[in-house]
Amino acid sequence: MPTPTIQWAFDQGGDWATTFNWSPHRLPNSTDDVAIDTANVRVVTHSIGTSTVHSLTVGNDFFTVSGGSLRINSTSSFAILLTVSGGTMRFGGAATAALFRQSGGTVRGAGTLTVTGQTTFASTLLETGAGRTLLKGDSAFNGVSGDVFGVDGGRTVENQGALTLSGFAKIVLGLNPFGASLGGGTMKNDAAGTIDMQDNSEISSIAGGATSFINAGTLKKTGGTALSIIRVDTTDTGSIEAANGTLEFLNPITGDGSLVVDTGAALEVKASAAATLKMTFNGGTLALGDPASFAATIHAFGAGDTIDLVFRQATKATLGAGDTLVIKNGTTTIATLQLAGNHAGDTFHVASDGHAGTLITVTPGPAHVAPFVAAMAGLGAGDGGGPVLVFSEAHYTHPPMLSAPRMAMA
To answer: Fewest beta carbons less than 10 Å away: which of 16, 287, 291, 407?
Structure first.
């Protein structure tokens, strides 16, 4: 910690712009190392004016930027709580905060803000500049309709903890909700991180700058039955799971991670998915907006699972060479999907999804049933302990599972 050249003078809260609150009795300037640390927990607020300091250390106090502009050229730390509700907080160097709340205003600069504990986002806000915001604890953005979290100017918001997006939370990369956009932005979910997208939440981008969503951890869609959307190019080296409702990707997915859809949920992939990805059914529906460009290998496609070709009509689905699922409309092949495992003898069914698309389901064949029968038939054999069980195979067609209603894309 730098030796302070100016410090908060009294055991009371107050406003930064009040000269009498400082020792010596003048406002801090760009050469000052500033310290605020009262005996009891107080609230110190920066509400007006433009201020620049060399460093800032806040100890036993809440610090709030509600207006004006505060620029810290070097390091800063906030031992209890940093709040930005308006104005601008600019970090030129490394900053740490035990707790962080942003309910408006702007965080900017080339420095990294590391939050070791809980972070709360609300309302409409902006983070911009070449730096990053690193979230290490539990974080939440509970939005209402119209709330936007803009990330632009090349900034990165990076999650290493548990981030929950609920309500109408919308993170938009490349957007400045308060004025002209300054370039792209990045959302990262590191290997230790979890992002829980609940109903109506969204991670998206606008044109005009480099934007990306990088998932190396766990991304889940939970909550109710409504839709959550990823509307930005996504690199997945971790795990993406639609656990409830519908999780929709409108842009390409690359990487070597996993995609999972659970019973009663829908994973909608409207653009391409790389061949290096692994898609696994755990029940539910995989909806494909461009099935010809879905190259991920599909695992565990069985009874009760559904592939929905969105606004694409098909008349036949058959097993092709190398465990591929060849889907045709008449004589025209519209998609060839790569399946994992042995699907010899499976019967694939096609039916309308009720929205100008096609549902594909499967009845497993003997290749799946025989190993189970053989294993069960061996129970008790040769030990004199009871009769050998005999099973008969039955084929049946499962009713199609409809994915969530959707609107036709222009």
So the answer is: 407
159-191 pLDDT per residue, tens: 999 999 999 999 999 999 999 998 899 999 999
Q: Round to whole Å and give the CA distance between 269 and 336.
A: 15
pLDDT tens for 238-280 read: 999 999 999 999 999 999 999 999 999 999 999 999 999 999 9
The least confident of 127-136, 193-202, 270-279, 384-393 is 384-393
The answer to whether the beta carbons of residues 393 and 342 sit under 8 Å apart is: no
Residue labelled with tokens 């799946």: 368
Global pTM value:
0.88
What is the predicted pLDDT for the residue at 366? 76
- The alpha carbon of residue 270 and the mean position of all alpha carbons in its chain are separated, in whole angstroms, by 17
Half-sphere exposure of 176 (CA within 13 A, CB side): 18
Task: Give the C-alpha separation, 173 to 46, whole Å.
Answer: 28
Omega into 24 within 30° of 0, i.e. cis? yes
| 384 alpha carbon, distance to own chain's centre | 57
Q: Residue 149: which of 167, 127, 131, 134 has the closest Cα?
A: 127
3-state secondary structure of 372: helix
Nearest CA among 366, 358, 370 for reference residue 395:
366
> Please, which contacts does 117-125 make with residues 24 or more away whose CB atoms are closer than 8 Å?
121/149, 121/169, 122/147, 123/147, 124/148, 124/149, 124/150, 124/177, 125/84, 125/149, 125/150, 125/177
| 3-class secondary structure per residue, 22-70 | EECCCCCCCCCEEEECCCCCEEEEECCCEEEECEEEECCEEEEECCCEE
Residue appearing with tokens 């230790």: 192
